[in-house]
Design brief:
The complex is a heterodimer of chains A (277) and B (442). Chain A is of the alpha/beta class and 277 residues long. Chain A has twelve helices and ten strands. Chain B has two domains: 4-81, no CATH class; 121-411, ABC transporter involved in vitamin B12 uptake, BtuC (Orthogonal Bundle). The chains are: A alpha/beta (277), B mainly alpha (442). Chain A: Involved in beta-(1-->2)glucan export. Transmembrane domains (TMD) form a pore in the inner membrane and the ATP-binding domain (NBD) is responsible for energy generation.
Chain lengths: 277, 442
């Protein structure tokens, strides 16, 4: 197994016209750990995610992914679909992006597209219905069933994804991402809109994905109870730069982080005024 | 009629009545403005070329009154059927389940009937010809359904592939003397090739832009066919295209013909019946392949593409190849249909491949319910068959036809068969409401 971190960002910069959304950001995500990326709104977290998962081409910088077997990918050079296909990075979206008109089961089958394409002999063998294709299809269904059970949606397998409740859709999206067999799972605010009970269930699910399946996780999250409970490391961003990195405990007490979240100017001003009085 | 309707609405829905009357009044006002010059004043050139005009206020008044009453009736119908005109709002569940059972047996019943058409109507050449025409459009509809219904890519130039198929067979058979059964796959391959060629420039386009470029592509092919005189014969087209043979046995009177070989008296109907079964087989092949493809990863990827392209990319699906295969598959079936068209007609010219054909096939797909095989077949039957049915109405044929289409679209905005059937299920296949299914990006 490779000892290099699964994901390493080196001086990642992303500009949109004159706006620098991410400025020379470097951090690493360790193998089989949960790394949280936090920061106030507009800090550039989702931009970082979109660079990692190929939706944006970074202006400069390197995003390096290292698999367990040592295979390395520079993701800024890969085409968008190859980031999932070759580099094995799966993601979910801040505003859920399921296939609403397809059933929960079908959603998970689409996620296994590349493996099934090979098994169906790029459609030719599948069209003829050869036994090896049927076996591959059945094992894909089994994998989907496994994840539906894992996220507690097996009873809704044949229902349209668009008909599921909000929390169920969030879990189905994670299940769909896991069906691609990822080495790194990127979650964009998975706890957004969930109630306390659902958040707790999500934490439990993510911990199990990390320990039982050995998948490394990178997540953006605003729900601090989730972040503090499950993260192994936390990276804090503000105005496109990294302002702190460390364990959840270290981050909680970091004055720069507190300042970024609560603001500084007024407080400092108040402190100065008090001192003068 | 006009008197009773406002009265009844006054009784039950006092708030709605004012709204309905206001809307009807506004519609009448628009009609008055629109028709006052078109209908109200009639102008014509007199005998010595001077302007002659006379007024027709009576006709104008009756038209405006008709719009007023019609608007009230439409609003009342809308009130009665519910906001979206949903069938479910006023049809009891027992009737609905009865309908769904009927729906289940409709497809096999239609198929059996289609197989028996040449037997039942053996002596009615008109019906057989109409059947061939309907089946040709069923096949075209099923082919376009792959592109529009499954992959959600609006293609307004589908007739181009029909033309490529027809000219492929026409030119290959007249120039090189190749037989229909060799040319058929070639026509499909060539059409698929042009489908890929069209696919490349439109990969990044969506919605209206995609529609315009595909429309232009259809016109380009037609214009090339008209102007490339040396090869295509220009506006004169290609004539003397060989008739199909039953695997080498011609359907002709004389010695080596099929009738002589079977020892039965020759009849020209044999060829019509043969053509009927040929297009039926081609259409069923299209249907079978499409149903098969939907259950394969490529078909699911097409539907996923229609639902959410961004999510597809995040799941490692190559959007480029997925779109191109959709275009190629749809085009291939169009090419097959084109080759059949050429062999049936024996003569092809660019006139047969106008935009109107594309629009008609697209209308069949939209009317049938995008993505539904049965719906497309029913829509083709209704559009082509219905069009013939109204032949006795002569000049009002288009009017009646347009009205029927508008009514169907009000009643069923997502087509005759609007719901989607899942491609795979664990316990029970539950059809998915059309509200959830996306229409795609174009």
């Amino acid at each position: 197994m490779s000892s290099a971190p699964i994901l390493a960002l080196e001086n990642l910069t992303m500009r949109f016209g004159g706006i620098v959304a991410v400025n020379a950001l470097s951090f690493t995500a360790q193998r089989k750990q949960i790394t949280a990326l936090i920061g106030p709104n507009g800090a550039g977290k989702t931009t970082v995610f979109n660079c990692i998962t190929g939706f944006y081409k970074p202006t400069s910088g390197i995003i390096r992914l290292t698999h367990d077997d040592g295979a390395q990918y520079e993701m800024q050079k890969l085409r968008d679909f190859n980031i999932s296909k070759q580099a094995k990075v799966a993601r979910t979206f801040q505003n859920i992006r399921l296939f609403p008109g397809m059933t929960a089961l079908e959603n998970l089958m689409v996620a296994q597209h590349n493996a099934l394409m090979r098994a169906s002999g790029f459609t030719v063998l599948g069209l003829l219905g050869v036994p090896s294709w049927r076996a591959a299809e059945q094992s894909a269904i089994d994998a989907a069933v496994f994840w539906l059970k894992r996220v507690g949606l097996i009873d809704r397998a044949d229902d349209a994804a668009g008909n599921l409740a909000y929390g169920d859709q969030r879990r189905l999206e994670i299940a769909r991402a896991m069906c691609t067999g990822p080495a790194l799972l990127c979650l964009d605010e998975p706890a957004a809109g969930l109630n306390a009970r659902e958040s707790a269930a999500l934490s439990e699910l993510l911990l199990s994905i990390r320990s039982d399946h050995g998948t490394s996780i990178l997540l953006i999250e605003h729900d601090m109870s989730v972040v503090m409970e499950i993260s192994d490391r936390v990276v804090v961003m503000d105005y496109g730069v990294k302002i702190a990195e460390g364990t959840p405990r270290e981050i909680r007490d970091d004055p720069k982080v507190i300042a970024a979240y609560l603001g500084t100017d007024e407080e400092e001003a108040a402190a100065v005024m008090e001192a003068e009085a | 009629m006009s008197a009773s309707h406002p009265a009844s609405s006054n009784g039950s829905e006092p708030v709605g009545a004012a709204f309905i009357l206001k809307k009807a009044f506004l519609s009448a006002l628009v009609a008055l403005g629109l028709f006052s010059l078109m209908i109200g004043v009639r102008t014509e050139a007199g005998q010595s070329g001077q302007l002659e005009y006379w007024t027709r206020f009576g006709d104008l008044a009756s038209l405006v009154a008709a719009v007023f009453v019609g608007s009230i009736i439409v609003e009342l119908l809308r009130l009665w059927l519910g906001p979206r005109g949903g069938l479910g709002s006023f049809v009891p569940p027992s009737v609905q389940s009865g309908l769904s059972i009927a729906g289940r047996y409709l497809a096999p019943a239609l198929l059996i009937f289609t197989f028996l058409v040449p037997v039942i109507f053996y002596n009615q050449r008109y019906i057989l010809d109409l059947g061939i025409l309907v089946l040709t459009y069923v096949m075209l509809g099923w082919g376009l359904n792959v592109v529009v219904g499954l992959a959600g890519l609006l293609d307004l130039g589908y007739v181009a592939f029909y033309a490529v198929g027809a000219y492929s067979y026409g030119l290959l058979s007249t120039t090189f003397g190749l037989s229909f059964w060799i040319c058929l796959p070639l026509a499909g391959i060539l059409a698929a090739f042009w489908g890929v060629l069209l696919g490349f420039p439109v990969l990044r386009l969506r919605g209206d832009y995609l529609a315009i470029v595909t429309l232009a592509f259809g016109e380009i092919i037609r214009l090339v066919l008209i102007n490339w005189q040396d090869v295509t014969g220009g506006p004169n087209g290609v004539s003397g295209i060989p008739r199909p043979t039953l695997f080498g046995i011609p359907l002709t009177p004389g010695e080596g013909g099929l009738a002589a070989m079977l020892g039965i008296p020759f009849s020209p109907t044999h060829r019509i019946v043969f053509l009927f079964y040929l297009i039926l087989a081609l259409a069923l092949l299209t249907n079978w392949v499409t149903i098969r493809l939907r259950r394969l990863p490529i078909g699911r990827a097409w539907e996923a593409l229609r639902e959410d392209e961004v999510a597809c990319r995040a799941l490692g699906i190559n959007i480029t190849t997925t779109k191109l295969t959709a275009f190629a598959t749809g085009a291939m079936f169009g090419g097959f249909a084109g080759a059949f068209f050429a062999t049936r007609q024996g003569f092809i010219s660019p006139e047969s491949f106008t935009f109107q054909e594309s629009a008609l096939v697209l209308a069949i797909v939209v009317l049938g319910g995008m993505g539904s095989q049965l719906g497309v077949a029913l829509a083709a039957l209704a559009m082509i068959g219905g069009f013939e049915l109204f032949r006795s109405l002569e000049v009002y044929r288009m009017l009646v036809f347009g009205l029927a289409m508008v009514l169907i679209m009000i009643w069923r905005p997502r087509g005759i068969v609007g719901h989607r059937a899942p491609t795979v299920f664990l316990e029970k296949s539950k059809s998915i409401s059309s509200d959830l299914v996306k229409e795609g990006h174009g």
